[in-house]
Amino acid sequence: MKIQPGFKVAIPITFIFCGLASGCKGVPTPTLTPTLAPLPTLTPSPTVPAWDNLALTPPMGWNSFNHFGCNVDETVIQEIADSMVSSGMQAAGYRYVNLDDCWMAPKRDAGGSLQADPKKFPSGIKAFADYVHAKGLKLGIYLDRGTKTCGGYPGSYGHEIQDANLLASWEVDFLKYDNCSPVGNFVTDYQKMSSALKATGRPILFSMCTWGFPGYWVIGSDVGHMWRTTSDIQDNWPRMLIILDANNVYASFAGPGHWNDPDMLEVGNGGMSDLEYQSHFTMWAIMAAPLIAGNDLRSMSQAIRDILTAPEVIAVDQDVLGIQGTRISATAASDKPEIWSKTLSGVNARAVVLFNRSEAAVDMTVSWSDLGLPSGAAAVRDLWNRTDRGIFQDRFTANVPPHGVVFIKVVSGGGNIPSITPA
Ligand code: GLA
């Protein structure tokens, strides 16, 4: 395949286009000025209950499990909260510091209340909530709908109201509710905790760790803000692809306030190359997935930091339309190159991934017609490099490295010469 003609910003675009399109006299030169993409600011509607405003765009934060497993304690997590700020993660949009399994003492207290492990968290969870809140961050915590958490700590079955009230009293902002050791009904258990959280009056984001799409009962209801569509991710390329393919199927169910969750990010945990982590992050962004980092923020490399904080990639994830992008090329779950597209806010705008799952570099072409865009001129911006690629007629071709991506924003001129702003 051959690269289609494209024009760099430096070239007098109006002049060139007058040779390609009729009637272009007087049409302004396209604006292709690269600037940093601002994060979207959604103003919660005062007429909508606080619960419904909690996840208007996919939640962003950090969780302890993928890197630390059960080795969590107060010192480590405080250092992570510090690093959220000093590394630029907070400025990039990450808000939640989420404590996963194993934060509890092995037994409830005499009054039946959950308690933090006194060795791991001697200051208690409320003090830790105060610590993260003072930094402008939010605190997430983990419970389980069954009789025991996956790590063997007390489950919340039969204690839903008591546990929700405890979380509210500690000023927790986010609950991940897991699925181990169940004795009750799956739907009822998640609904019970959802109601208990709402009844506290504190806005607590409800992340349902359901290990698979929970079912149509979550659609159109306000039971939770995100639900796990898959079993656990692992820090390797084949597993990441399995999770990606599984989550793609449920795209139509995502939207502002309720997101498909293909599990937390493995970016920076060491089992994939930086290029593969860039692909992993790209695919989570085009799927409008919650971006919950899972690496050790205290010691990440500059390359990993650049991936996790890439402003124009994050802006695609956080696009206010809240549409989950999907694979638009025919192949699925294969080792072939594939094209993914996500409709963005703005007129005729798409985020597009040219994704090469194979072991060899390949030229890939996306046509505007594949994207449902009018034929003719469209502006193309490279979202990783934060540069404009230029104006292209009808299609765009790029060489994509093995296990790599080319991630672009395409804005069609709808028959006219387009202008582009960063995603
Ligand atoms: C389950 C969840 C994981 C993690 C562990 C903790 O496996 O799916 O995300 O929370 O439990 O034990």
Report on this model:
The protein is of the alpha/beta class. The chain has 2 domains: 6-30 and 325-412, Golgi alpha-mannosidase II (Immunoglobulin-like); 55-317, Alpha-Beta Barrel (TIM Barrel), CATH 3.20.20. 24% of the residues lie in helices and 20% in strands. The protein has helices at residues 13-18, 65-68, 74-86, 89-92, 124-134, 160-169, 186-200, 237-248, 274-286, 302-308, 311-317; strands at residues 6-7, 60-63, 96-98, 138-144, 174-178, 205-208, 226-228, 259-261, 291-293, 326-327, 337-343, 349-356, 362-367, 377-382, 387-393, 395-400, 405-412. The strands form 3 sheets. An 8-stranded parallel β-sheet has the order 8-7-6-5-4-3-2-9. The longest helix has 15 residues, at 186-200. The chain is elongated. The two termini are 28 Å apart. The model is unreliable at 1-40 (pLDDT under 50). Alpha-D-galactopyranose binds at residues 65, 100-101, 150-151, 178, 209, 232.
